[in-house]
């Protein structure tokens, strides 16, 4: 390829990756639903974005390292506090039993349906055991299932990927060696691979823990240190043993997220932006390698394989995994209706299929297109149906707001009581122990630990927050916290209006919606409360009592709507108004 063709190809991959994600965001659908068809179409229309031509033999190692970065980020989202006994039991069963049954079943069905040899079919089965956080996470964010279901599926998606990657590498070596071998002959190599990955993960976690705790790195440098550590450790592990870097990456993320003091600075918008970009680049690149001709005789048999996996295998795996646990019937049903395939399946198929074709393995040319069809079909099916299925099964989280109130002044505690009396589940956080004591005395749930960890839901006790109200008497603190928390919570972040004429360092430039009417600043609210004003609730009929100011409306379905500088919400029958009296 000429230099101009390389420039054009790389530029197109980046533009298509980001453009697809922007389009998916606007359509409110998982990005994968757009990325794969766009990459496939672009690959069919031009040879300029063929990554194997652009990057040659470096493409496969780059894919492995990119997947390691994605899995490290997934590990950062795994909270051990929420990994309780029954959750752990279900996840462990989903990993070992699910991988065994899914891989074997997919291989047995693929042989007759796709006309594959045993080697190609077993390779495809090993590839299809994985799920992945890159597809499960966005789907769960859209569906909003119960927290227990979310934890189970996130843990499964994050842990099955490295297991599937190693399983794929072992099957690949078994197929290329010319025989299936017995279980015992593969158990030893699997144990060795696991040991290499664990050792790499422990070493990488130690390096990152020291760096993030002791060196006091800034946000940008902390991000680059994490990236360098993950890539370096994953590369070293893969040199020793194929795909063991994936285990190391997940363990590093898990350790950094759960070791006290190490995970506070780990997840930042820039790192998450980097991961999103990597995901987009991988999906565009890999799907561009699938030619229309390779799909001609694969689509219908592969859809038959998808139907078998979705309607038979996954429900069976979910039923066995949830056996003798306290999961409800609805939770068991939804668990059986959520197994999309993602980036690791695509990356593994791309890595191994070409070599198997070169070795003359019968049907190996169908591995990548069949995997492509399974990924597109499962993501589309679950993406379009999961929300409706969750609603029918009654496993969708309540729409009621669960706000975090930050601040411990008496009027803020009074507001917490009022919101709770309106039927909301309120969580509060304050820095001073005297303020925390006042919150406890009011009987309101007190968020433990450090503010940013609490507000982003990293603690199991605070999962399901729907927004943050920054109500401290320090305007700059509110402004800084709003800037830091806007990308870390599921809902909106609101802050108090600073006092008129204040010249804060951060306040004039910060994000976050500003609360209440212009004259209701933090100091003014504190003064009025000290003079006898109180926060009260009443059914709202469209008119305010004399001497009362509206602060919030609580809808009949429990959604909390604040008065902001843009104006107040329009009242509906059944709404409860939260008012400042006096």
Number of strands: 10
Instruction: Label the structural class.
Output: alpha/beta
- Rg over CA atoms, rounded to whole Å, is 26 Å
- Residue runs with pLDDT of under 50 for 5 or more positions: 263-267, 456-461
Describe this structure in words.
The protein has 582 residues and is α/β, with parallel strands linked by helices. It is 61% helix and 7% strand. It contains 22 helices and 10 strands. The protein has helices at residues 3-27, 31-45, 51-55, 59-76, 85-114, 118-127, 133-143, 147-177, 183-214, 219-240, 244-258, 269-288, 292-295, 299-321, 329-335, 343-358, 367-393, 410-421, 433-441, 451-455, 475-485, 522-530; strands at 403-406, 427-429, 445-446, 467-470, 492-495, 513-514, 534-539, 548-554, 560-562, 576-581. A 6-stranded parallel beta sheet has the order 3-2-1-4-5-6, sandwiched between helices. A 4-stranded antiparallel beta sheet has the order 7-10-8-9, with helices on one face. α2 packs across α12 (269-288). The chain is elongated. It starts with a helix and ends with a strand. The relative contact order is 0.10.
Q: Could you list some keywords that capture this structure?
A:
582 residues, alpha/beta, six-stranded parallel beta sheet, four-stranded antiparallel beta sheet, 22 helices, elongated
